[in-house]
Amino acid sequence: MDGPVYIVSCPDYDQADEKMETLLSLLGGMSRFVKPGEKIVLKANLLQPAAPEQAVTTHPRIVAAAARMVREAGSFAIIADSPGAGHKYTAKTLNTLYGKTGMFEAARASGAELNFDTTCKPVSFPAGKLVKRFDVINPVTAADGVLGLCKLKTHTLMSITGAVKNNFGVVPGLSKPGYHAKLHDKAQFADMLLDLAEYVSPRLSIMDAVVGMEGDGPGVSGVPRRVGLLLGSVNPLALDIVASEIVGLGREQNPLLLAAARRGLTPSRIEEVEVMGADVSEVRVPGYRLPATIEELGLGKHLTGWKKPLAPYLKDWLSQSPRVGGKRCVACGICRDACPAGAITIAQGRRGKALIDDKRCIRCYCCHELCPEGAVELRRSLMHRLLSIGS
Question: Which of 31, 118, 294, 339 is the most buried (most CB within 10 A)?
Answer without folding.
Answer: 339
